[in-house]
Amino acid sequence: MTQVERTHENAVDKMKEIQNRYQSSFPALKISLGDTPAASMLSSFGPIDEFRPGNFVFYDLQQEEIGSCHLDDISVAMACPVVAVHPDRLQWIIYGGGIHFAKDFLTLKDGQKCFGRWVKPDGKSWVTSETAGGPYISSLSQEHGVVQCTERTFHLCMPGDLSLWLPVHSCMTADAMGEYYSTDGGKIDHYRERLWS
Questions:
Q1: How would CATH label the architecture of 71-178?
Q2: Are 80 and 16 in contact (CB under 8 A)?
Q3: Domain residue extents for the chain
């Protein structure tokens, strides 16, 4: 049994326990569960009434790390302008900080923190073939991110360029975006307004 299966099964068991405890007082009580990794990795979700897989449509680097998606499945990227470059440190500074990416991070093989990974713009899309060894956000302040590059990748962006970043945790990044744009430039409804009065 995988970690995703164990986590999902544990959540269903706890919800079933709660439902059983309160069923006599609330006979219409339903089990509603949100679980993005399970949505991709399991074929059966158990005895639940409603399944809410969260940001299942976006995915993110955490999801990729646990195996519920591939880099090419991630369908959200934060566009951030490069505001400065520091050749001596092989770093860029982007206008994209904790309020854009949250503070979730992955730990790279060398022990460094990664708050997001660069993707190469490609016309009306992006490519992830250079993402694994490419620039990554190594630290965040509220509004800005420090991007660590290598000698091979430092030249990829200059001040004023718009850079694209796969988030570590897309839930908060997607919510922080003021607007969504498709890769062909069309605006996508963010659904921030209440749908009822």
A1: Beta Barrel (2.40)
A2: no
A3: 3-54, 71-178
More confident: 188 or 161:
161
Q: Write down how long the chain is.
A: 197
Cα–Cα distances (Å) from 20 to 8, 9, 47, 51, 171, in that order, read 18, 16, 12, 19, 31
Residue 193 has pLDDT above 70, yes or no: no
Cα dihedral angle (22, 26, 27, 28), rounded to 10 degrees? -120
- pTM (2 decimals)? 0.83
List all residues 6 or more positions away from 20 whose beta carbon is below 8 Å from its beta carbon: none
Task: Kindly tell me if the per-residue pLDDT of 196 is higher than 60.
Answer: no
User: Residue 143's closest CA among 77, 84, 64, 65?
Assistant: 84
pLDDT of 194 above 60: no
Is 19 buried (19+), middle (13-18) or exposed (0-12) by CB count in 10 A? middle
Residue 102 φ/ψ, nearest 5 degrees: 65, -165
C-alpha to C-alpha distances, 86 to 65, 89, 148, 149, 165, nearest whole angstrom: 30, 6, 10, 10, 19
Is residue 118 within 8 Å of residue 133, measured between CB atoms? Answer: no
> Rounded distance, CA 50 to CA 153, Å?
45
- Angular region, 21: left φ>0, alpha ψ -120 to 50, beta rest: alpha
pLDDT in tens, 123-152: 888 888 877 789 999 999 999 999 999 999
